[in-house]
Amino acid sequence: GSSVDVSEVMKLAAEMPGKWENFEIALEAFNDMLEEQRENIKKKVEEQIVECNKNLERLHGRWLALKPTDVKEWDKGTVEGIFQSLADWREQFEQVSEQAKTLTSNCEHFQMPAPKFEGLSALTADLEDVQGSWDMYKEFTGDLEEMGKTDWISFRTHIFDLEDFGRKWLDKLKVQAQQGRPRGP
């Protein structure tokens, strides 16, 4: 029971090719706009890679000039300052390293060649070596302070603990030297 107006159907059918053509034009324009945006994003990623490499180069240069190696005063305040400085260096390094990871991921996403961050691995290795040496020093001083808390009357019956302490740290230093790492701060 319902009647279909054939003239309406014919009118819609006649308009379809024009509407379809308009849709194809709009879709093509949209695809062109997307491709343009994609190219703009690629350019921004390339600019960010250049900027990241500059930041990495500056950080590496500052690290080489200012890393804690020669200590004139070994008082507690100076050493604590060095540990704080190392924490600051680590934070700066993590920021640049995270930026490099993000940019590498962005390049993969946009099918761009993987970026090269010159000096990142060298800086990582040097920072870890210096940090490891200072961490070892911190562990040594902690062990020494712990031993120093014992009064002489109690300690003198365990004088062999001092020899064990010296042997333990000598062995640790030998292992570190065999691994080709610096001997200490």
Question: Care to describe what's here?
Answer:
- It is a single chain.
- By secondary structure, this protein is mainly α.
- Helices cover about 80% and strands about 0% of the residues.
- It has five helices and no strands.
- The protein has helices at about 5-65, 75-110, 120-150, 150-155, 160-180.
- The termini are far apart.
Can you give keywords for this protein?
185 residues; mainly alpha; 5 helices; elongated; single chain
Structural class: mainly alpha
Output the radius of gyration.
Answer: 33 Å
Share of residues in strands: under 5%
Pattern of helices and strands = HHHHH
Tell me about the largest β-sheet: none
Give the termini distance in whole angstroms.
96 Å
Q: Number of helical segments?
A: 5
Strand tally, please?
0
Oligomer class: single chain
Mean pLDDT: 89
Poorly predicted residue ranges = none
| Form type | elongated
The portion of residues assigned to helices is: over 70%
